[in-house]
Amino acid sequence: MSTLKDVAEIAGVSVSTVSYVLSGKKTVRPETLKRIQDAIKQVDYCPNLLASGLKTNLSKTIGVVMWDMQNNYSIEVLRVMEDTICKYGYCMIVCDSDQSPEKEKKNLRRLLARNIDGLILMGSGNNVLSSYRNAQIPIVCIDRAADEAFLTVQSDSVAGGQMGTEYLLSKGRRKILFLGYDLDFDFARKRLLGYKKAMELAGLSDEIHYEILPERSVKCAMDRVEKLLQDKFDYDAVFGCVDYFAIGAMNALIKHGYQVPEQVSILGFDGSDMGKLSIKELTAVAQPKQALGKAVVEYLMRLIRKEKIQEKCVLMEPYIIERETC
């Protein structure tokens, strides 16, 4: 196995210079840095992070606790986070809480036992965050309800709900059915609020119609719309609180002979890649996945470096992805 000494000899520098460069404690001239990087590749040097961690008290590891790993949008953001974490020279350990507060607490204990340097809480968990207050490591949340104890990075769900509704109104739609999710979740409440706000501003308070679904899945939405179709379906648009709901509604409507978007427009929320795989490519309010994934890691790294950050909640603007369903 190659050593720091091997790298130093090939690069023509001292062992301490290689060590400082790898730890980020010292900058060198670009040509020297390139010789060190080339030497590392040549001998396939792998630093002993455990030994390094004993000296610096840093494990170079970030823990990520996900609320629901089956959420396609969350997986797409996770990819961005991993790329960004790697660029900082860290690795990532991911735990899935499977929508269980108890499992989430167990995941936290397991990660803390591994001496992680920082923690990212990802997803829309509706449990109280009090169990994290004594963790004594930097913590940043993404797509969670804002909490004064932790910096939170999220897209603006109220603005997204309003933006999506106004987009449908601009298409001449007036009878818009909103398919919402469990209102215990912050994002679900806010997206419904944005929908209501847009309808009221358009003078359509009497046309506010929404259904709250218990499960975030395509099948759940499809079953609910199937049930509505058995009675009287009097809507010219469906706005899904998440992409899953929009796709489920579209499947049910097309199955029953409705033309999308000629008769009924369908709009999702998230802008996940699965929207490209539906019967018709899904138009959606998209969350800025790249910006969110990068920002949450960059804020965490600043906290690890003990920088002071004034922000408590960082909101990012969603946008419309126009495809085939509106």
UniProtKB/TrEMBL annotation:
InterPro entries on file: Cro/C1-type_HTH, HTH_LacI, LacI/GalR-like_sensor, Lambda_DNA-bd_dom_sf, Peripla_BP_I
Domain HTH lacI-type as annotated: residue spans: 2-56
Signal peptide: none
Gene3D superfamilies to which the protein is assigned, alphabetical: 3.40.50.2300, lambda repressor-like DNA-binding domains
Assigned keywords, A-Z: DNA-binding, Transcription, Transcription regulation
Domain named HTH cro/C1-type: residues: 3-46
Organism per entry: Blautia ammoniilytica
Family matches, as SMART domains: HTH_LACI
Protein name according to UniProt: LacI family transcriptional regulator
